[in-house]
Backbone:
């Protein structure tokens, strides 16, 4: 009888041990490294492209990134396209495709300092909220200043003002933030 109880208890303990082990550990979803950021502006009606770029091949720290601003025409419209990539690995990774695939989890914000410019979103997620990979940028009077573009991961897209591009209530985590010098003439 003691042998039966011992076997029963042993089997019970082994069963509990085996079923309580986590067979498939959860691996956190690490954010991708963004080493290259381009905001390509195509003038309405034709003309030369304006490419605002950020290049940081070694990622955060180390060598400072190279940032190239641009010059836009006053009272003009530009179709904007953002291209993000990680060139620190081979083959390079197109981060824009990942942002596009996870539209509900991302939004770009466009902040202007001393510039007479407006940006409107041309793309939305499944809920009708803006993303920002595709935009329309409109200039007004001559001015000179900075354009800050911020990509937020997991913003609160239904918060007040966020759908209009106001970052104040967005929350979430910043995946990348770049300040481009810009002149409108």
Residues:
């Amino acid at each position: 009888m003691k042998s039966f109880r011992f076997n029963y208890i042993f089997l019970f303990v082994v069963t509990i041990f085996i079923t309580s082990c986590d067979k498939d550990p959860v691996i956190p979803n690490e954010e991708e490294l963004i080493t290259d950021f381009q905001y390509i502006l195509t003038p309405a009606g034709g003309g030369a492209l304006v490419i605002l770029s950020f290049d940081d091949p070694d990622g955060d720290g180390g060598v400072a990134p190279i940032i190239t601003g641009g010059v836009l025409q006053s009272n003009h419209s530009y179709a904007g396209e953002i291209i993000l990539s990680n060139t620190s690995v081979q083959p390079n990774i197109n981060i824009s495709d990942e942002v596009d695939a996870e539209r509900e989890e991302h939004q770009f914000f466009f902040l202007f300092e001393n510039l007479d410019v407006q940006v409107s979103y041309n793309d939305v997620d499944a809920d009708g909220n803006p993303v920002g990979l595709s935009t329309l940028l409109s200039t007004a009077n001559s001015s000179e200043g900075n354009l800050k573009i911020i990509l937020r991961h997991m913003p609160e897209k239904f918060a007040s003002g966020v759908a209009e591009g106001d970052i104040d209530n967005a929350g979430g985590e910043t995946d990348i933030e770049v300040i481009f010098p810009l002149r409108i003439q």
